């Protein structure tokens, strides 16, 4: 074999090597085929009008006050309105048009989750108090993903006869009148409660990872209390906190659960994600290029957020600096006023934010829920999971799709992490690395939308089982598997590339030096060393495939025989009275799957996996 | 700038006693070193002096003032961490100015003082760099400048050279000595490197498992070690277990194997002793007051200007001699017979430690 310039440039190996080439080309081609090209097809649709390249569809969005209304917002933040025989404060939200509403909601959720998440993280990272371990376990509960039903519970909590008023109005008399949270503010609250653990986990990791000597030195020089926090601790944790907050911002942008549950008030529908989704549901507007343009606007915002934070965090790789020295975590007993804050602010807030998950369980085991608490204990809903044919069917479907997707995800993340992690000098390496992580910033609804245009318009997919307009033969499972394998790839990829980075390249080189080929050294040295990462990452990806929402309730809800769990849950939530209880039972099932996976990941692999909640 | 006194400091961490009653007295303007293997308690002692940890019992005085439980920043003992602990989100200027800003020093004066400190550590022109843009040696200098700029009563250095490469280590060593002399401040220095300790210190305290074995000048520590541990910790040395067989006042005769050495100086009670002989004190020619040991050459190691001869005595005891590399020495080959001569006064007899 001859030394080849192009092989060295593209793949980082002077001698062309089939294993390395496959490791680069398989994930690269897959991601280009099922992520890049579909988005480009959608982009082409959005920029085309009457056969010409045109900004027509974008102008139609930004020229319409329905979509873009910065100067004359309608609606109100708070008003008083009658409810039964008394008055309540009604929190609603102003309507600045679909695009700005999405941005405003996203920013509000980022701010609120940052406050909550950073607060809890600081308490957990730096204080030692009785009951801390219980709190640690409780903080893990909001991470459990229960699509739609947790938002249903949040909505109930903030009704005039809900839990919040029961506590703060009826019993503590802290509110002069009951409150009722609905509309965009309802969406913001629901998303905040759902997503703050993401900021919490990021912030917690950041606080824990600060070299104690950096703070000790500041104390030694005379800094203390809030000054120490402001000048040293917080700036050092900021990159981690920002990364968490931006992730939350993107999740908020693409979230469908909250807008769908709050769709009773029209303003909650005036969000980008909902608009695109509703074009699927209503059917007649689904091929509308205006929706492609809107999806593109959404994607652009998400990508800008993602790339900005990557650039910002990349600039601040603080962890690298410290070496040697002792590493004794800084944990203190809280002072009396801090103890009071923990006991009377942090703990109650935590209890309220885990209530949605508790509420899902209550809902699943009850007949109805109209007032503050559910009524009528029943096991029927849980039984239905095992017996009711349509419910059993969706569980089987989801298990099937997720299992197939996870096989693809493992293959993709192994090859991509190996290629990008081991051959950093290759020209393809940074491209592959970006492509494997970027799906986290691509809203699910955008993937659904671009798949629609791609599979229904581009041969050879047009007219195939992947074509959603091919009513007779369309198989949603295939589209869902592709979508899952793209959307949930980053979780496994991140875990596996972390594993590969921990294995020094010399271990493989030693094997090859002793005569093992590339393939042999990979399977006999690298794989056994990283299988724990692989197992953990795969389980993480699996549970999030099971609870995937955006694609599941759009492309996945075209044919009820092939519904995934989330499509069924959505149907139940917006459907007949009482079926929310059945949806909650499915929520309980999903929680059980997640808890099992987490326990397995933590106990058997003896590694700590922080599950970040997303739908 | 004051005397530092430690009285009977005891510290336990999770049930294990890290310090078992440390007492020290450090003089004004002294460069005092805590020397010992890792885990001996030297860093803990330093952290207690800095006020980053507090002792279980015992007292610390700075001059006349008791500072045992005073918060770190109120006692004016500034620590330079082993890892430098430079704040990565601040520039060199901001790092150095940090302590001054807390002390509410006027802006103009901060500028002047930071400049002075940077000049002192020869880093002028680096004000706007971030720590990640500096080399290890430069980071070290910034850390020292940051500590010095607040004019501490005592400067505490925790293994300051351990993260530097060999050449830089020598350079920074004399740099630290220069700055200490120039400013005339008290420095307490922690290291596990005996050579570094001897080169830099006025006095050294050798520590072992939470106790102080010996305090003295580098020469005293090296030439008159008081315990077996100190003797073997301070550089390459021969430690030969032996038994006292005769006593005549403070002169004794000892035996090991079939060797018998008389006229050695020893005043302790224990008959189980070790003979400590520095390799460079062993000669190949007899002298007035010498004893001799005859064995065979096992290994000759050539180091350039000196050579080490490792000789075997009675098949099992190995003794190292270090001499100038003259022709006679370099001509020695393994299995050649060789006789080592040692001046009686160069044999230190110490009671055997466990």
Key features?
heterodimer, A: mainly alpha, MetI-like fold, 24 helices, 7 strands, 5% strand, disordered C terminus, B: 354 residues, alpha+beta, Rossmann fold, OB fold (Dihydrolipoamide Acetyltransferase, E2P), 2 domains, six-stranded mixed beta sheet, 20 strands
What's the helix and strand layout?
The complex is a heterodimer of chains A (615) and B (354).
Chain A (H helix, E strand, L loop, with lengths): L4 H7 L6 H29 L1 E2 L2 E2 L2 H7 L11 E10 L2 E10 L2 H29 L5 H7 L10 H9 L5 H9 L7 E3 L1 H27 L2 H9 L4 H30 L2 H5 L10 H11 L6 H27 L20 H29 L1 E3 L6 E3 L2 H8 L1 H34 L5 H10 L6 H14 L18 H12 L1 H14 L2 H9 L4 H29 L18 H10 L4 H25 L12
Parallel strand pairs in A: 4-5
Antiparallel strand pairs in A: 1-2, 3-4, 6-7
Helix pairs in contact in A: 2-13, 2-16, 2-17, 2-18, 3-13, 4-8, 4-10, 6-8, 6-14, 8-10, 10-13, 12-13, 13-18, 14-24, 15-16, 15-24, 16-17, 16-19, 16-20, 16-22, 20-22, 21-22, 22-24, 23-24
Chain B lengths: L3 E10 L2 E11 L4 E5 L6 H9 L6 E6 L2 E2 L10 E4 L11 H11 L4 H14 L15 H13 L5 E5 L7 H18 L2 E6 L2 H7 L2 E6 L2 E6 L1 H6 L4 H6 L4 E11 L2 E6 L2 E7 L6 E6 L4 E2 L6 E13 L3 E8 L3 E8 L2 H4 L6 E7 L4 E4 L3
Parallel strand pairs in B: 3-8, 3-9, 6-7, 7-8
Antiparallel strand pairs in B: 1-2, 1-4, 4-5, 9-10, 11-12, 11-14, 12-13, 14-20, 15-19, 16-17, 16-19, 17-18
Helix pairs in contact in B: 2-3, 2-4, 3-4
